[in-house]
Amino acid sequence: TRINTKVIGLVSKPVSHSKGPLLHNPTFRHVGYNWIYVPMLVIDLNEFFRVYSTPDFSAFSVGIPYKEAIIGLCVKVHPLAQRIGVVNTIVRSPNDGEMVGNNTDYLEALSGKLFVLVGAGRALAFGAKIKGARATIFNIDFDRAKLLARAVSDEALHFEDLRRPDYKLVFDGVYNPRKTRLLKEADGAIVVSGVKIARKFMRVMERF
């Protein structure tokens, strides 16, 4: 990299499937930013940040399975991210170099009269709640679904009870593959693929 290049790491396991570098790096070049987005397969989160908690990295994107565990390694956490219990973006403060955790996932949550969440995605559940939706949460781990439902004052149901009625819109946060099994089975509904969540990356860029 060139001198003074701002390095942003993607911390995840696995990481090879991520489209982040394909989205970020061309955008950085297009707008003339001397930045580079680097995917990093992290096996041990604590050891990684012991080694890489240097000014060489200006920021980190945080992927699965570390979005909850990373909170304990942040010196500061944005109040909303703290409430959600999930951090997906860490920016090093230019003033004191401390790592500050934030969350941008919830900004892409889809609101409506009823928000049916398959899985225990905290950012989406809180995003729906913030936008005034009523959420019903289904998860294979029912205890985890109940904990999330309790946090957002909504309802949890057993995963086995999930039957797709005539939903008007079906959204899948997964962007690779583009058309998931869920979207293929959502005949008759408006389907929104995880590719739409790429808009989130622009908000992540604003944090950097």
From TrEMBL:
Q: Which organism is it from?
A: Erythranthe guttata
Coiled-coil ranges from the UniProt annotation: none
Boundaries of each Shikimate dehydrogenase substrate binding N-terminal domain copy?
10-90
Gene3D superfamilies named in the record: Leucine Dehydrogenase, chain A, domain 1 (3.40.50.10860)
Which GO biological process categories is it annotated with?
chorismate biosynthetic process; shikimate metabolic process
* One Pfam family this sequence matches: Shikimate_dh_N
Write out the transmembrane intervals: none
What this protein is called in its record is: Shikimate dehydrogenase substrate binding N-terminal domain-containing protein
> What GO MF annotations does this protein's record show?
shikimate 3-dehydrogenase (NADP+) activity
Which InterPro entries does its entry note? Aminoacid_DH-like_N_sf, NAD(P)-bd_dom_sf, Shikimate_DH-bd_N, Shikimate_DH_fam
